[in-house]
Every structure is written in C-alpha cells, then in structure tokens.
Amino acid sequence: MPETFDLTTAVYTKTAVGQQEIQTRSLGLSPLVRRILVVIDGKRSGSELAAFLSGSGDIEEILAQLLTLDCVEAQVRAKPIVSPAPAAAAAVPTNEVTGSLSSEIPGLPSADSRSAKDNEMARNFMINSINSIIGQNMRISLVHDIFHAETTEQLRVVYHAWASSMSNHSMGAKRLPELREKLFKVL
Asked: CA distances (Å), 92 to each of 11, 16, 31, 156, 162, in order?
C-alpha cells in the first residue's frame, strides 16, 4: 500500500489487536472511537464509516488513531466491491478468470439442485453455529453476510469465511468436521 492514501476512500478491516480491543477494552478508547472500531467490517470505506459519527468527530482523526494503535488495516479500494467479501477473504478460493470469490466446494451437488428451504436451513445452521460456539456478537459481519446470502452460490461463498472462523476457535475446530457434514446436507 502506498505511504500516502486518502483515509476516506480506503476500506478498513480489524486487526487481531482491534478484535482483542473489542473484547477487553484495554486501550481505553473513547466511546466514539470504539463505536467506529466496532462497525469496521472490511467492506466500508472511511466516508461510509463517517455516517456512524452522527455529526460529532472527524472520521479522518479517528481512523488515523485506530491505524496508529494497529487496531485496523487500510486497503486502497481499486474497484467497487461487487459481492460480499468475508472477513477471512485471504483463505477464500477465487475464480482465476474473473477474480471473484468462488462458490465451488468439492463434493457438493450443483447449487441449482438446492431449494429455498435448503438455503434457509443452511443459513440458520451457519448463524446458529457461529452464535453458539464462538458467541453472539463476536462475528457480526460474518453473521450479517450469512443472513443476507439469498442464493446457494452466495451461501457457498460465505461458507469459506464460516469455516475459517470455526477453525480459528478451539471448540469450533474440534466440531468442524461434524458441523461441516451436517451443513453439507443442505448447502
């Protein structure tokens, strides 16, 4: 990333320090700065995050503070985001031709063979497993992405972030094979 960039056009993601800060509040962030840290989801630009300030505070100062404390990372947005990007996008397979996130999961039947009821069951299973194993409100952006995935293809794209989140949690990692088997019956 270049050394100078526009803080309002960059897209922000939480770092491990930022995730830890949300849980522990050890850095003593002001309520306004903490609010911005909580809503950072890897999809919104600085100007989009400014909407959460309600007219109080300067988004550039807040983002600069979070960057300095290593709570967030900035990525310069090269092109508009077309599909929802899961938090663990680095581990998500992409289509080499289009560069878009892949919905390919080996061993699953065609997405066209899944019904709306199957999609609803898969969506509920993924959300409930995140909430019960990792904890409610711990992966809000992931739960949001799962909830808003309307088609089987969209659910399969979000699946990679779900699996990554589960594997990064001790109990989730232990139960992942069992959960994956149950999920694949409807995904």
From this structure: 18, 19, 33, 11, 10
Q: Splitting the chain (187 residues) into consecutive groups of 10 residues, what average pLDDT does each group show?
A: 63 91 90 90 86 78 89 69 42 45 72 87 87 74 84 87 84 88 88
Q: Give the Cα separation of 55 and 5 in Å (integer).
A: 23
d(CA 97, CA 15): 30
Look at residues 159, 161, 151 and name the one whose alpha carbon lies nearest to residue 183.
Answer: 159
Sequence letter at residue 135: G
Backbone phi and psi for residue 167, each to the nearest 5 degrees, phi listed first: -70, -20
Q: How many CB atoms lie within 10 A of CB 151?
A: 14
**CA-based nearest residue to 10, from 22, 18, 2:** 2
N-term to C-term CA, the chain: 37
> Which residues are registered as beta bridge partners of 10?
76
Print burial letters for 28-46: b (CB count within 10 Å at least 16), e (below 16): ebeeebbbbbbebbbbbbb
